[in-house]
Amino acid sequence: MTLIEPMRFTFDETQLAAALALGGIRASDRSTLPSAPPPADPQKALASAKGALADGSLSEACAATLSVLADPARLVSIVANRSGENTWDETLIAHADGEGPWVAYPGPDRFDFAMLPTVTQATVYADELLAITEGLSQPGLGATDLGVAGYSAFMALADALHAAKLRALLARERPAQPAWTPDEIEAVLAEGLAKEDTRWAVCAARRVAPVDLSSAKGTMATGLAELGSAGIAARRGAAWTVTEQGNARLVHFGQLLVSAAIQVALLRGRGRVTVAQTSVFRTVLGVWLATWTGTGAGSRVQLTEVSAGTALEFVRAMLDPEEIPDAPPLAAAAPAPAATAAPTAAPPGAKYPKFCPSCGAATTGKKFCASCGNRLAS
Amino acid sequence: MSAATVRPDPRRALLERHARAESALDELDALERRADRAAGARLAQHEAAHVVHTREAIDAYLALLPRRELSRCPFTSEALVSAIDDVGLDGLWWRAESPVRPVEITPHTLVAVTGALAIASPVERAPFLATPGPAVPFLIPRLLEGTALVAVVSSLRIGPHTGYVIAYFGDPPGGVEPANDWGTDHWERGERWGSVEDDPASYDVDLAKLIGSGRARWIAPGDASLTLRSETNGCPYIGLRGTRSPQYVQHGEVWT
Q1: Domains in chain B, number
Q2: Which chain A residues contact residue B193 at CB under 8 A?
Q3: What pLDDT, on a 0 to 100 scale, did the predictor assign at position A373?
Q4: What is the ipTM of this complex?
Q5: What is the mean pLDDT of residues A247-258?
Q6: What mean pLDDT, rounded, does chain A reach?
């Protein structure tokens, strides 16, 4: 399924050099474009490059695309995997200061550029990679703040629970209320860290975390205690079991569809500052954001189930924080769960209802419902 | 000495937010038209977030609109009080198609509220079309001929411009179809609404004649008491120069 078909420019290195020369585009210090010498006849080199030329000159769209790559100010990296597949696809989305398009490409040495004229289209493009709108979603039970040990224990507990359910299913038994000792969770964590199967939570989480989850080895007693404080796990003697609240969260991670890492970097001269790092999990049941702060073993993560709308706003803000003035600040906590989606009454004096009384579609402030044509003004 | 502080303009911020959301909805609508059913359903989720932004901006805008005393009924002396965006034509109150205006409780004698606008520089740049009327106050003959209605002309500042309010009152008010509300393509009175196409060529700008015959009165600019006047001497609305044709404003450009 394709949500968007952006204009694309695909070059080899010679053609790229030709395009830059023809457009008079110079790469700044912060560009990753190669500095190959241009061919003697740039037009001839570009003859087979679709969309690059217009009346013998570099086309306006191609020039705008390359200008972004020649002097990018913001670089969003999305690394995503479909559960169970062996490949991880990286996409970089660059944007320059001020006006101009967003440009998506598969890496600094692959010259296949998708030109996305607006942040709206860039967000749709990112959604294709992240699968945010590909299924159910709902605002969850609220954010869970965890350290690396707690986060790793959460994922290991999800895998342990998933395995217990599968075993019960195969044995045609009703699932029991299992309990695990810290050592058993250590074993689950170690197995996940050693394997590459992204259908399992530890494997997937390890690949999309900005910190090394193997640093959590040997800390599962601490991690389970963190989950206990968060109401996700409960102590039963020397072991830990999953609470009802914990089960509501953990069950998602037994049904992963897409796991991804988003990183936002600001480019200043030759320097690069990472301002946001988030892991995204699209599961059968919903969308989860794990927003990281700090570095190394001292990192913290806010794990939150969000509605698709909130996740899209979050991605949009990562692509362009100016676009939504009251968007959550980058590198801060995950966004608060969205308010309930239930229709609310229009405020006193408002001219139009928030939702069409005829078909229930959300209104856009216009006189007639965009969905069914019902007149909304009264 | 501290540096000057630039105060954020909440009205401008929310109008920009609204415009961005509308623009995003237009883009997504275009994508949706090209998409298959499954992709369309996913794009609809993108739209939903922007619809929320649009609604929020509209609600905030409505809350910001000031309420002004615009006119007075010559029969009951009741003031016509209404929310109006008097900051500029870039406000959604002035959007000709689907203006954003609260439901008003108006005098029961009110039949119609039209208006005119003498446009001055700078002209606001708004993405939508505004139709603020001719540049000079005018009267619609069909509302006065064969009726007992009385028109009241008043004025107020709309940003750098001068707005003229022309309200028609009657006691009883029935029996005549109202004119479209100022700046819009329709009229609304409580539960009733409709749309009328009055021919601008029929507009009567001879205010002296109509005031002299008692069919029109006026309120002096800036008169907070809204005193109704019936003399032609000293009436600032007589003999004004400016186009009698409806004016159209969009993206900072004005045309007739």
Answers
A1: 2
A2: 377-378
A3: 52
A4: 0.78
A5: 96
A6: 86
Judgement on whether residues B47 and B164 belong to the same structural domain of the protein: no
Distance to chain A for B54, nearest Cα, Å: 6
Based on the fold, state whether residues B104 and B186 are members of the same structural domain: yes
How far from chain centre, in Å, is Cα A357? 35
Verify that B17 and B118 share a domain, yes or no.
no
Give me the DSSP letters along A22-70.
HTT----TT-----PPPPS-HHHHHTTSTTTEETTEE-HHHHHHHHHHH
Most confident of A234-238, A372-376, B174-178: A234-238
Lowest mean pLDDT among A93-97, A200-204, A223-227: A93-97
pLDDT(A341) > 50? no
Of B131, B150, B128, B136, residue with least CA distance to B213 = B150
Is the pLDDT confidence value at A371 over 90? no
Residues of chain B contacting residue A134, judged by C-beta atoms under 8 Å apart: 42
Same domain, B172 and B200: yes
**Which is more confidently placed, A239 or A369?**
A239
How far, rounded to the nearest angstrom, does the alpha carbon of residue A74 sit from its chain's CA centroid?
A: 16
Task: Measure in Å the smallest separation between the Cα of B212 and chain A Cα atoms.
Answer: 38
Grade residue A112 by pLDDT with cuts at 50, 70 and 90.
very high
* More confident of the two residues A29 and B114: B114
Nearest chain A residue (CA) to B184: A367
Question: In angstroms, rounded to a whole number, what is the distance separating the alpha carbons of residues A192 and A339?
Answer: 35
CB contact under 8 A, B39 and A3: yes
Q: Which residue do the tokens 């989850």 mark? A: A213
Residues near A351 by beta carbon (within 8 Å), at least 6 away in sequence: A377, A378, B62, B100, B101, B102, B103
A with B: how many residue pairs have Cβ under 8 Å apart?
99
How far is Cα B102 from Cα B96, in angstroms, rounded to an integer?
15
B153 and B194: one domain? Answer: yes
Q: Is the pLDDT of residue A323 over 60?
A: no
Answer yes or no: do B84 and B197 share one domain: yes
Nearest chain B alpha carbon to A376: B98
H-run or E-run covering A258? strand A256-268
Contact B97 A366 (CB under 8 A): yes
The whole-chain average pLDDT of chain B stands at 92
Verify that B42 and B103 share a domain, yes or no.
no
Q: Is residue B1 part of a domain?
A: no
Q: In the prediction, which pLDDT does A372 show?
A: 52
User: Which pTM does this prediction carry?
Assistant: 0.81
- Give contacts of A118 with chain B, Cβ < 8 Å: 23-24, 27
Residue A3: closest C-alpha in chain B = B39
Full residue range of the structural domain in which residue B55 is found: 10-64
Distance (Å) from the alpha carbon of B150 to chain A's nearest alpha carbon: 27
Query: What's the pLDDT band for A370 if we cut at 50, 70, 90?
Result: low
pLDDT over threshold 90, residue A22: yes
Q: Is A327 helix (H, G, I), strand (E, B) or coil?
A: coil
Q: Which of B13, B45, B54 is closest, CB to CB, to A364?
A: B54
Q: Is A99 near chain B, with CB under 8 Å?
A: no
Bridge partners for A104 per DSSP: A93, A114
Domain locations along chain A? 7-130, 343-378
Residue B5 lies in a domain: no
Interchain pair A123, B48: CB under 8 A:
no
Q: Please check whether residues B152 and B220 belong to one and the same domain.
A: yes
